[in-house]
Amino acid sequence: MPLHRSRYAVNCVILAAISSGVWTGPSRADEASYWTDHDEDVVLRFVQDPGAEAAEAPAPPVTEPQPAPRTRFVRLQRNTVRSRFRLASVPNMFGDTFPSAGQVFAGLAPTAGADIGLAGGARRMKIAENNKALPMDRMIFMYNRFYTALAGDDDVATPGGVQRFAVDRYTLGLEKTFADGLWSIDVRMPFTSDYAFTSPSLAVSGGNIGNLNVSLKRLLYETDDAAIVAGLGIDLPTGSDVRGSAIGFPMVVHNDAVLLMPYLGLLVSPDDLTFGHAFVQLDVPANGNRIDVPPLVSGVYNDQSLLYLDASVGRWLYRDAEADYLRGLAALLELHYTTTLQDTDVVGGALPRPIFGESANRRDILNFTLGLHAEVAQTDFRVGAVFPLREKPNRVFSSELQVQINRHF
Length: 409
Hints:
Strand order of the largest sheet: 3-4-5-8-9-12-13-16-17-20-21-22
CATH superfamily of the largest domain: Autotransporter beta-domain
Number of helices: 3
Number of domains: 2
Shape: elongated
Largest sheet: 12 strands, antiparallel, barrel
Structural class: mainly beta
CATH class of the largest domain: Mainly Beta
Number of strands: 22
Strand content: over 45%
Order of helices and strands: HHHEEEEEEEEEEEEEEEEEEEEEE
CATH topology of the largest domain: Lipocalin
Distance between the termini: 85 Å
């Protein structure tokens, strides 16, 4: 007999026995034996004893969420969740610098000399000024007071006749991230106080508008406790020219130079309390500044290229991320080194005609910065002081006061 007819006959017999009450079904052992000994395609299953306890339906399996594919960007996003709080909350480096644009000398017995305060003394702003090696979203305000930063002397051959001027610099800025936080662009516009020096043979005055500084920052590497960035700063000649007179002839030093400032930066935070910064940056002029003292002098003065090395260490003195107001207080110690990379340019003829150049020729400047950083909600309030560690000519100011405010968004 064919197999399917045999199975059909068996099923009919079983149904007849159940309906007549003669047989109530197999035991659990018989049922297990039956399903072991017979093919899986049998249509009719045994009917359980009405008194038997119904078996519980198995719970559906729990499906675990599958992780997203590993890519460089996913890794950075994961690190952002895990470590960005520590790195992002690290206080910025304070900075130190005040740029020199050289000096002008004119006259003969006596010979007068004065600093050239191009862009009001607000140019060549390096990346270490109120910054760190991490792209950020923030609004920036900075106030710097440089004591005895500019000077003029109506007789350089006679001691004691130097007039010294402090420079007050106010800077507004904005830094904004893009491309998933891997990049940021930082734009800063400084303004300064007046500078004017007058003597019988030389008069010099500068304006109040500084140079617009634009910096691009790229995150190259990030772990739980470190980040490395690279970028380029561009100092654009939006600031004021220097005007005056030399031995009776009108004088103009034009603010023309575009300065290219590539850099590398490092941020480390080995634990929740300590942190450190480091920057290395070149400052290279792409062109010079035109000088006009008709009919005596006409030429182009080229700024010296500079190398900046900046390092900072700090420690949190107080931390409470859940506080309504004061969430952190930190102290920072910094060293800033600036050196010239070539000899000074010189424009002009022999005295008494005006001569333009850097009187010190080469400089090796080393400054020490001490700062206090307070984090209040989304705003940082910072106060710092800068002290030169070397004597003239390797110091360009006597001391500096800094006030910085960053509003994060």
